[in-house]
Amino acid sequence: MNSESSNLIIASLGPFAEVIGVVALVALFTLLRGQADRRPYFKNWEESWVMAAVALTSAVIYQRLTDPASVLLSDSRATTWLFAAGYLAFKFVSLGMLVVGARVYVNGRRDRWFVLAAAPVGVALSLVSETSHTQLGALGLTVSPFAAIAYVFAAQRLATMQRSRRSLGSYVATAILGMLAVVWAALWVFYLSARLQASLSANPWWVRFERYGFFLDLALQLGLGYAMVRLLFEDGRRDAADTQAHLDVMHNRSLLDEFYDEHTGLLNRKAFDHAVGLDFAMASFGSVAHVRLTDRKSVV
């Protein structure tokens, strides 16, 4: 077996490796579901990984059905279209759930209309694409622009949220989302150049990138899963710190008197400065209103 054949075999294993990696992420996120009762963004991300696993499974089957060297090579246009449509539809839903999770994490917005539209769009694109003999990688020309846009949007939402909520987890997630956008945009350029002029895609570096793109995508997806889990744990640590502050207040009478207004019973400015009572805001959107009243009688 020559080196070229070995490289092709390794490249063909990319989708299988990515399926295994994403299934592992689904298992991890499922185990952590109990830690995310108050964090709907984590549930959105878990659903995104589930949809990604289904999409990649469809992709692997499609790859076997269209590979001339595969024993599963199919002559049925309907069969190959079915799995291509499954890949595109579930991939689009996965991207939609990723964006929804980012929006919920940043500002609590749960607009899901583009998630509902994702599957029909994927099916529609499969109808206008050649799926009977097209290799799996070439479907990247259909998916890549949408994937790059979704990753850029999610990265932009995390990068521009209020500074008080930024953390190592958010910085890592933003960086990896940006790298995923670059990878998918590069894949789109590769396949578009191959359509326009075959010689442009014959560059050895482009060929290596196309062959091993699945492995690069897998590494970045695993990194993104780590960042998402870190964001969950960071929210948990903020909750724990605030709970401990509340316990300290309840067990220390002097602090209790200092942190609560004697007339209204509400938390005062000193409590605000010590982040007492801010657990809900810190675990969701960070929106807190601090009002100073100088003449309560006129307000009442």
Features:
13 helices, mainly alpha, Rhopdopsin 7-helix transmembrane proteins, elongated, about 300 residues
Q: What do you see in this structure?
A:
- The structure is a single chain.
- The chain has 300 residues and is mainly alpha-helical.
- The chain folds into two domains: 3-235, Rhodopsin 7-helix transmembrane proteins (Rhopdopsin 7-helix transmembrane proteins, Up-down Bundle), CATH 1.20.1070; 240-299, no CATH class.
- The protein has 13 helices and no strands.
- Helix 2 (14-31) packs antiparallel against helix 3, helix 2 packs parallel to helix 9 and helix 4 (77-107) runs antiparallel to helix 5 (113-128).
- The longest helix has 39 residues, at 213-251.
| CATH hierarchy, class of the largest domain | Mainly Alpha
Sheet-strand content, in percent, reads under 5%
Identify the CATH homologous superfamily of the largest domain. Answer: Rhodopsin 7-helix transmembrane proteins
The total number of structural domains is 2
Number of strands: 0
CATH arch. level architecture of the largest domain: Up-down Bundle
Average pLDDT for all residues: 79
Indicate the low-confidence ranges by residue numbers. none
Please summarize the sheet with the most strands: none
Structural class: mainly alpha
Q: What's the order of the H and E elements?
A: HHHHHHHHHHHHH
**Radius of gyration from the alpha-carbon trace, in angstroms:** 25 Å
Distance N to C terminus: 87 Å
Helix percentage: over 70%
Outline type: elongated
| CATH third-tier fold name of the largest domain | Rhopdopsin 7-helix transmembrane proteins
